[in-house]
Design brief:
Blueprint lengths: L15 H19 L3 H7 L4 H10 L17 H14 L1 H20 L2 H12 L5 E4 L15 E5 L2 E12 L6 E7 L9 E7 L5 E6 L10 E11 L4 E2 L5 H37 L1 E2 L2 E2 L4 H29 L5 H26 L9 H10 L8 H14 L1
Parallel strand pairs: 1-4
Antiparallel strand pairs: 2-3, 3-7, 4-5, 5-8, 6-7, 9-10
Helix pairs in contact: 1-4, 4-5, 4-7, 4-8, 5-6, 5-7, 7-8, 7-9, 7-10, 8-9, 9-10, 9-11
The protein binds flavin-adenine dinucleotide.
Flavin-adenine dinucleotide (FAD) binds next to strand 1, strand 3 and helix 11.
Amino acid sequence: MTDTLNFSIPTPKLSSDIYNHIHDMARRFANERIRPRAIELDDTEAFPSDLYEEMAQLGLFGITVPDEFGGAGLDALSYALVMEELSRGYASIADQCGLVELIGTLLSVHGSHAQREKYLADVLAARKRVCYCITEAEAGTDVSGIKTSAQRDGSGWRLSGSKIWIHNAPIADYGYVLARTDPAAGNRGMAIFIVDLSANGVSRGKKEKKMGQRASPVGALHFEDVLLGEEALLGPVNRGFHIMMSVLDKGRIGIGALAVGIAQAGLDAALEYAKTRKQFGKPIAENQGLRWMMADMKKDITAARALVHRAAMTMDAGLPATMDCSIAKCFAGDIAVQHTANAVQIFGGSGYIRGFEVERLYRDAKITQIYEGTNQIQRTIIARELLKA
Ligand SMILES: Cc1cc2nc3c(=O)[nH]c(=O)nc-3n(C[C@H](O)[C@H](O)[C@H](O)COP(=O)(O)OP(=O)(O)OC[C@H]3O[C@@H](n4cnc5c(N)ncnc54)[C@H](O)[C@@H]3O)c2cc1C
């Protein structure tokens, strides 16, 4: 009996010139425009519209949105490269890029011609702000438990319910809302609606005070008998759950890359500090305990980056990528938390003081284990895919 080895490594789809170009552009923008403002933005929790307008002009929004729809027309690997570099500058800024990518994907892949015409250009140009709305008070990890309902009303729909912890809710123009259309049909009874957040019946909760990534506002949205036309429906009526879950795969590549960016920023800061801070008459970098800590940071960041790139290339090859996306997001989030804590440790007392970059990075890292599906649920997905195989 012969044992055939069916082994393949996903490879990049585009030329290295293209990846280098987009990567260098994101890195330069992060170094020159984002990083110098990160501490101030974390402190003031301001929403830096000017930075987003600049990013839109540079073409850093809608990386995977086809060029005929106004996007950059690149691939998921390019998106991962951009997200890591923006996040190395400040993760809150990368968050906004991720949000536009997610909504851009919803519109370009699942939207009608009329919806793309009406909404996409404004989203990619940062003229209109958007949010995606899944989570509810009683339905976080268990999305199938959502209660927000959309009922037929004449030729349109009537939307009622509440969403919590929605990125951009305090400032968004449009919400992409997952609602239940058929209570008896479980995950097959949901749809996505594009909701104008200035419409009658929409109200916003207060802006939440967050531990980290404080320049991306988060809050609640309430819908009370909001009347929607048929044109508000995005995609087929009972496919909303599956559409949302499919775009979340790309979202997880984005969050994985964002987590790698945070961890890399922590290593950059730790290396610099360890070489210059002296104790016992020598740089603290000469102590083996710290050298091994930094070696472990480098080792794990390299592995996390490779996993993120692998997930992206698998998606770009059109292959099933769900497991790879969950592995990448979960591993990258876990090592970002672990190694930003190590960066704080290398800074000693200074690492615990507000205004030092590593203190912010440690707080910014934690949410990468929670949003876009908690890391427990990523492990559940990995196990499910394993057992399915
Ligand atoms: C800053 C921030 C931004 C966010 N942005 C958005 C957004 O833009 N849009 C949006 O829709 N949502 C958003 N969320 C919500 C986020 O996606 C949820 O918080 C997340 O999915 C977890 O849901 P939960 O908080 O209700 O936790 P729960 O579901 O209550 O889980 C609590 C704990 O139990 C664990 N757990 C639950 N079920 C299982 C299980 N079956 N097996 C093992 N462990 C389990 C979880 O992993 C977690 O550790 C955001 C949240 C935050 C904090």
